[in-house]
Amino acid sequence: MPSEQELQIQISPIVQESLVHNSRTLYNLQSITASLFGVSAGILGLESYAGFVFYVALSLLTSVLFYVLRVAPTSLASGKSPLDTSRYFRGAYDFWAGGLMNGFAGFVLTWTLFYGLVTA
Amino acid sequence: MTLLSKTITAFGSLLLAHACYSAREHTALQSLRTATAATLTSSTTVATSLPVDIIIETIISTFIILLGLVLGTRPLRPLEWRVWAGKIEREGEEGFTDNAGAVDKDYMGNPFSVFESRPNFVDIRKQRKEFAAWVQNGGGQQGQ
User: Count of CB contacts below 8 A, A vs B?
Assistant: First the structure.
């Protein structure tokens, strides 16, 4: 007996190229913005928990901004409910919180670099 | 669209570079002041936090760059096959362009084109007649 999700994929199949294209677009944005947030955190001279809170907040803001500017105009027009990203992405968790993992290394790298540059 | 996002990103980067330079100068000045104050009066009551205008400039420039980067992302494609194929049927190549207006390299065209041209129903005798007429009219002469 196939599971609910398998049945859903059988009924409405998905396009793999679109999935790869959308994921790569989001991943590129998250990587580059994480580096940018590291630069800002370093200039501001944030330390320990303040820097991580800064990163988490701005990363979530990036997701929201990406949703509002890129996903929402066509997603809402096609009858999806607000904050529903299933037109372009599989899994809401990956969309909203995926940036926390993807860009973390880049964030710490530029954070320490610019902290050292500014305050040394 | 792409010009707009690039302009916004460049403007934000300029602001961020200025904020970074200001913060660097501020800390350099602070360390100099503490050094001279230590030699003169041995008092260490010097504020070490950044001025408010540099903080505001940094945060605002971060938001500006973020807006520019999000505006510069490539348009997304629908996941479900029926939505995607419907978009191709309705919009064709225009639905699959990047920000600069060029058609994406991996745009394949109509996924149902295999149903719309059927080799089994080609009239091969008619094509043979046409080919014979073409040969009789000297169509093959240019090779000699």
Answer: 103
The answer to whether residue A69 sits within a structural domain is yes
Closest alpha carbon within chain B to A54: B59
Q: What percent of chain A has pLDDT over 70?
A: 98
3-state secondary structure of A14: strand
What are B68-125's pLDDT values in tens digits? Answer: 999 988 888 888 888 888 888 888 777 777 777 777 777 777 777 777 777 788 888 9
Instruction: With 0.90 as the threshold, say if the pTM is over it.
Output: no
Suggest the residue from A19, A23, A43 to mutate for an interface test with chain B (most B CBs closer than 10 A): A43
Distance CA A58, CA A80 (A): 26
Complex ipTM value: 0.88
**Domain ranges, residue A77:** 36-119
Q: Which residues are paired to B49 by β-bridges?
A: none
Q: What is the number of domains present in chain A?
A: 1
